[in-house]
Structures are given as structure tokens and as C-alpha cells.
């Protein structure tokens, strides 16, 4: 938009409806700063959204790097990601760390973060089929079929390993 042949290229002021000033300033700081601004659990989501919207592949990959790096803490429940799925009410019996695995997987698939998808699918294989069906059905309904199948295959492979008869 700023470097290609779009009409915005020659304008001195560009309206960005729906964008928060602080978030867009954070994006510009991330892109143009000589000193790299660190990703945090507070800024990753808006940076990810803006990087996707403005097709900033390098920034998207940096967001993915950050999420992969902290995924262990998120999946273990030591670090909480902001629940970007409004309207989701978790079951009374759901475990927050398991819920976060699925929320992170949904986020990864929404932004096509393949390495993060792989990490989340690997982590989700430790669910039971009953948990997926009863406690996390709302979240599972948001999974793309291929990711849901990979989770189920991982659970089945794990179960096969337990019940091997020689």
C-alpha cells in the first residue's frame, strides 16, 4: 500500500478505520525501529492481526516464532493467552491448559502458522476422546477438518502404543 502503485502511496495522510492508534504505532515501531521491540503476550495478537492484514510476511513469521517459543508455557497453563474467541464458554470440567492448546491451534490455523499448528497438534494428542467430545466440543467445531483429523490420529496413535499386544 505504501510502496506499490496504490493511491495511498502519494498521500500525506491515510485514514485507517478501525485501527487503534497505539496498536498501529506498535506495528510501525516493530517495522521501522533500529532496536527490535520484543513480542509480549500483550502485543502479539494485534501485531499478528495487523501483519496479516497488511501482508507483512516477515512480521507474521516473527509472531509465529514468538508463539512457538512460548507455546510450552501456554500449553502447560503457566502463561495465558488472551481468549480471542468471544462468546465461548468453557465447561466447568475443562482444564484451562488444555483449552489453551485448542485456542492456540485455532489462532494458528486462522493465520496459517504451520509450525505452530504442528506444535499444537502434537500437544493435543494428550487429550482423551471423551474430553474433546464433551468438554471442548465448541472449540473443536472451530477446528479445520484436517487439523481435527490430525489431533484424532495423534490420540489414536498414542492409544495404540498403550494397548500393543505382542
Automatic annotation (TrEMBL):
SUPFAM superfamilies for this protein: POZ domain
Domain BTB: 1-68
Pfam families documented for this protein: BTB (PF00651)
This protein's name: Broad-Complex, Tramtrack and Bric a brac
Lineage of origin: Eukaryota, Metazoa, Cnidaria, Anthozoa, Hexacorallia
Amino acid at each position: 500500500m505504501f510502496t506499490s502503485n496504490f493511491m495511498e502511496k502519494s498521500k500525506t495522510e491515510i485514514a485507517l478505520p478501525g485501527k487503534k492508534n497505539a496498536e498501529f504505532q506498535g506495528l510501525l515501531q516493530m517495522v521501522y525501529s533500529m532496536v527490535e521491540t520484543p513480542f509480549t503476550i500483550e502485543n502479539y495478537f494485534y501485531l499478528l492481526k495487523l501483519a496479516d492484514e497488511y501482508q507483512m510476511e516477515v512480521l507474521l513469521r516473527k509472531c509465529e516464532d514468538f508463539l512457538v517459543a512460548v507455546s510450552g508455557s501456554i500449553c502447560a497453563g503457566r502463561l495465558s493467552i488472551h481468549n480471542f474467541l468471544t462468546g465461548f464458554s468453557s465447561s466447568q470440567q475443562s482444564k484451562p491448559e488444555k483449552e489453551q492448546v485448542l485456542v492456540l491451534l485455532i489462532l494458528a490455523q486462522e493465520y496459517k502458522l504451520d509450525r505452530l499448528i504442528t506444535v499444537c497438534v502434537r500437544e493435543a494428542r494428550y487429550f482423551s476422546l471423551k474430553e474433546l467430545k464433551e468438554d471442548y466440543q465448541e472449540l473443536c467445531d472451530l477446528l479445520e477438518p484436517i487439523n481435527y483429523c490430525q489431533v484424532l490420529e495423534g490420540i489414536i496413535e498414542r492409544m495404540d502404543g498403550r494397548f500393543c499386544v505382542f
